[in-house]
Amino acid sequence: MSKSDPIKKVTLKNGKTRYRFVIDVGRKADGRRDQRTYTYNTLKEAREQRAKIIAESAKGTFVADSAKTVAEHLPEWLAGRRKLQESTRTNYANSLKPVIERLGHIPLQKLTKTQVDDLVTWMLESGRRVGKKGRPLAPATVTLTLGRLAQALDDAVKQGILVRNVARLVDSPGTAPQKEMSTWTAEQAAAFLAYVAEDRLFAAWCLSLYGLRRGEVLGLRWCDIDLEAKTLTVCVTRIIVKDQVVHSTPKSARSKRTLPLDDTLVAALRRLKSRRAQERLKAGRDYRSSCQTCNESHVFVDEVGEEVDPESYSDRFEVLVRRAGLPLIRLHDTRHTCGTLMHLRNVPAAVISAWLGHANVAFTMKTYVHSQDEALKAAGGTLGAVYGTTEKETAADDTEQDNVTREPDVRKCEKNGPENESAA
Question: Which ranges carry the Tyr recombinase domain (predicted)?
Fold first, then answer.
């Protein structure tokens, strides 16, 4: 080796010989040169690795050594997802807990497909950590965890920390077949509203059946309602995050929307507002007020202005459904009921999607529109009318029935003989 050779021979304190070089591998985040030092046992190995680094740097595929672990990278990645709602962020963090627990100590660059496969197997066999610990987790839950890990490792690839994403090589367990959502018919929905007509939260039950999310109903303020223009605007939600009720913005840009109110809702809200005024006077200083804009608390509160707890609202719905003797559905299924009934009444898909506050029409039609038994029967009748088979089949059935009726008479006459014919 000459003095100009970039690879230097070095002698360690124990007398052993090594070969070392310093090389630029790009720029750091702050713009400074990123120089790395590499040491190898033989000159041949050092030259091969130096040539490889130069070639990969030229192609933009070089990945410098990093000691960052899985447990260090995942929280950093999640912190960078600034547009996530707090509730969504919490769901992401929960789904990644098994990864940090089982694989967090492993350096990102040493994470293998086999290790991720083992994680998936463990979750499917005994990954439950809440409730019945040690029981299998649902395939949908495992799929969600694998998907979040894959997203986080995609980010590491973009940063140049990883060459490839091993999580993308792992087969997803998929999800269980989706159960057909339970929805009410128009008659059942009307029966429920008739049953709760005198309930203090009647207007809230109306809004739930009109397709608003639970958080949207309970986040509604009087300043969001224009009873003269007959509109309401969804701009605040009350949701549960980490066992705490928090105020948040709507789920997406399209979730913030202004909807018309029909006469039933306007009348229900006027009655509630009048009742609230009386309760406010009765409670006096003990009455709560949390909205500075309209000097009122949210629309749906108790007698002293205390906001309705979201879980209590869902529980109350179940109690009322049981008392009304109607098929039991979840509170969230009222949104599915709304979308389904609108669709069955030929409301355009784009309008249904906008009404429900969805990001796109395809999601609405795939997830929130369902079949109903009565609709299937009506569809069958429609096809019969279209194909012209209904009347023909009926006529054929009548003819066949006439033949069946006459044949026994003929046989009876032949058996009994002419002498019995007059008596018959």
Answer: 179-381
